[in-house]
Write a structure and sequence with these properties.
mainly alpha
Length: 52
């Protein structure tokens, strides 16, 4: 049975940085983090579904 995720909540904390602005974003780390969070949410939803 498919699981539908209806909303995606992305929380960020924006702070003023003292580091130089030329620092590049680590896209692979961001992708891994988002993927990990999505997997955890899917597992949580599956567990919740099994408990019903």
């Amino acid at each position: 049975m498919p699981i539908e995720i209806r909303e995606l909540i992305i929380k960020v904390k924006v702070e003023e940085s003292i580091k130089p602005k030329a620092e590049a974003l680590d896209i692979s780390m961001i992708k891994e983090t988002v993927t990990s969070l999505c997997k955890k949410e899917v597992k949580r939803q599956l567990q919740k579904f099994k408990e019903r």
